[in-house]
């Protein structure tokens, strides 16, 4: 385009018409030059902005890094152990809880307390109460004061033989999840055979045992068969009535 303008420009003694055309082209070049300048201006200010933000970010992160470096020689034994050392509450770790976690008072450290059946857990109420006392952030009751409940259900690990079986299991599970969501109940669904000799309906016993050990915060473990559905979504188990019982089995007069 430049060559075109130069060769046919007024210096080459063109007619008035071609002079007019050259002027037009010159105008176009000036316009595009103008656009280019505007574009360049925009690009430069954008780069400037990026640089400014990068500098700010860099300054902050290097400041953070310096802060971390100045703190780290004391870690992990001393830092954050007392709340008044200028650290924020978010970073505080209560090491006395850690000590307790490692002590024999914590039933999770007791080799006699196992997830598997065969060895009964003795003095469970006391062990559980100690654990709850040491973990006040884990509540054994819901927001409305009801006992914390963990519903447990499960089915076999392999697909159903009946082609519609897995579809029904999914629907039954969804029914339970909906009920639990409405009533603030936790739910666990198991697909693993925990004790090889305890298949079919026996499989629930090692599962309930494992759930009790894993969830000391639960006041009740509620076993429900995988092919059972709750039809009255508003039904609430009268927990108060069972307060003095350890095991409630459907089918007896109660
Ligand atoms: C929660 O546990 C405490 C004992 O640690 C007990 O006294 C209280 O009744 C329990 N709450 C419910 C709702 O069961």
TrEMBL record:
GO terms for molecular function: galactosyltransferase activity. InterPro entries: Glyco_trans_34, Nucleotide-diphossugar_trans. The keyword Transferase applies. One of its GO terms (cellular component) is Golgi membrane. This is Putative galacto(Gluco)mannan alpha-1,6-galactosyltransferase. The chain crosses the membrane at residues 33-54. It is found in: Golgi apparatus membrane. It is a single-pass type II membrane protein. The keyword Glycosyltransferase applies. Belongs to the glycosyltransferase 34 family. It comes from the Eukaryota. Its main location: Golgi. Keywords: Glycosyltransferase, Golgi apparatus, Membrane, Signal-anchor, Transferase, Transmembrane, Transmembrane helix.
